[in-house]
Amino acid sequence: MNTPAPAPAPKYTPREIETQWQTKWFEKNVFLAEPGGDRPKYYVLEMLPYPSGQLHMGHVRNYTLGDVLARYKRARGFNVMHPMGWDAFGLPAENAAMKRKTHPKAWTLNNIAEMKKVMQQFGWSYDWSKEVTSCLPSYYGPQQALFLDMYEKGLVYRGEALVNWDPVDQTVLANEQVVDGKGWRSGAPVERRKLPQWFMKITQYADQLLADLDTLPGWPARVKTMQENWLGKSRGLEFSFKVTGGYEAPLTVFTTRPDTIYGATFCAVAPEHPLAQAAAARNPAAAAFIAAASALGTAQEIIDKAEKQGFLTPFKAVHPLTGGELPIYIANFVLMTYGTGALMAVPAHDERDYEFAKKYSLPIVEVVAGGTDVQEAPYAEAGVAINSPLIDGLATDAAKDTIIAAAEAQGWGRGVTNWRLRDWGISRQRYWGCPIPFIHCPSCGVVPVPREALPVQLPEDVEFTGSGNPLANHPTWKHTRCPSCGGQAERETDTMDTFMDSSWYYLRYLCPTAADPLDKAKVGYWMAGKGVDQYIGGVEHAVLHLLYARFFTKALRDCGYPVGNEPFGALLTQGMVVGNSYQKADGTYLYPSQVEIKDGKAFEKATGDAVTILPVEKISKSKNNGDSPDALLARYGADTLRLFILFTAPPERDLEWSEAAIEGAWRFLNRVWSLGQRVKDLPSITGPMPNYSKEQSRVWRKIHQTIDKVTRDLENFQYNTMVAAIMELFNDLTSLDIEDPVSARVVRRGYITLLQLLNPACPHITEEIWEQLGFRVPISNMYWLQVNSTTRKIVEEMDERFGELVFYDENEAKEEEITLVVQVNGKVRAKLVVPHDIGQAEAIAQAQAAPEVATWLPNGVAKAVYVPGRLVNLVAQA
Question: Quick one: average pLDDT of 799-819?
Answer without folding.
Answer: 79
